[in-house]
Amino acid sequence: MYKFEVHRVNPVQSSPIVLRGDGYHLTLAKDSLDTYLSYFGVRYARGGIGESGGIEMKGHLEEYEVEYDEERHRITVKFIGRNRSERFDMTFSIFKNGNSSLSVSSMERSTISYSGKVVPQKNPKKTSGKKYKS
CA-CA distance, 113 to 65, in Å (whole number)? Predict the structure, then answer.
């Protein structure tokens, strides 16, 4: 299980924004995700009824892939997430020191990235191997 706590938002056409307070996160566990991310950028299509302007999802992961780069000591997790009205292509990178980044793209919004840290979770499970696809 990965829990990524967001500390900074990096919109494509703006300066980085430091987030104060907590709560903005991405949590991956086996084949599911839970996200609550702020969004600063251009939206090309209107969101669904009752949706916030942020990126919120709870549900099943699609096309989940994990790669380990031994030379750079980096784990990269690629997957697709969906909410009621939108599909998000996500790339999550975790570095040896726990620093992490997340890039989120959608056909309905400009791409945005986030910086933060992976925090320890109860009962984390270790995985082995270089690459996994679901």
Answer: 19
